[in-house]
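Protocol step 4 of 5: obtain the predicted structure for the target chain.
Materials: sequence only (see below). No template structures provided, no constraints applied. The aim of this step is simply to have a reference model before the mutagenesis design in step 5. Sequence pasted as it appears in the construct record:
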Amino acid sequence: MARTYRPLDGVLLFDKPLELSSNIALQKVRRLFQAEKAGHTGTLDPLATGLLPICFGEATKFSNALLDADKTYRATVRLGQTTATGDAEGEVLSIHEVHVTQQQLDEVLEKFRGSSQQLPPMYSALKHAGKPLYEYIRDGVTIERELRDIYIHELLLHGFNGESLDISVRCSKGTYIRTLGEDIGAALGCGGHLTALRRTAIAHFDLQSGYTLDQLSDMSEVERMASLLPVDSLMPDMPKLQLDEVQVKRMAQGQRLGLDTGLPDGKVSLYGPLGFVGVGRLQGRRLAAERLLSNIAKQAAITSAP
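Step 4 output (structure tokens):
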């Protein structure tokens, strides 16, 4: 019997397991919810675990809100060894003795806090000419990459046993924790690579509110649906603007509105009589739609019906 999929809107905070690609994880969750449309908000390596927000239906339109957000990780860095991939999956390239004092470690970690530049790894999904870099490296081709500006908001040391570091990192988008682990090892003079990585937060979303595949599988249909967050949970800090049914209808028709809102210029979350309808952009007194729910016209029709 063919599987039946249904329209479904919302956001799931998924706890991705080890050795599962982000895309395979997405498809497993999508089938579990029988959702017509789903997408994730940024990949995690198969050897990484943790928070992978999955957007269903209309939420996929607003998932970009998380792409530029800060992310938080817990990581283990093995000192004294470098690998071809910067993590435990790659071939060991060099081995060095580790003679690192606590003072040296503190001084090195301090250097990585704040703004810096980082060279993206070849073993990454970053694209060149439409193809991921890891596909080039499989063919023995190395692509020249440009340094990227990154910002480490927080870099904490939770443990050091003389060989491995247990750290947490809160960083800007585009930061590669594998590369950070390698760079820390290089700065300590002994090399290093990542042996474990877990994403614990993205923007305001926290892994403590996440669900594993086993938890979701054991839920009833009602419990599973209750695990979904509303679409507008993707942008909680955005100023909110309430519209009446006439204004919602005009927005649905592609019209701009002239309003005295008292809000600053920029993006705003738009709400009609039935709730969230999309995101608009204010410029002075002018409000233009930036991205609206597909059913906004239906909402307008319902609220205006006699």
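Step 4 remarks: Residues 238-304 form a domain with the Archaeosine Trna-guanine Transglycosylase; Chain: A, domain 4 fold (CATH 2.30.130.10). The longest strand covers residues 148-160.
Proceed to step 5.
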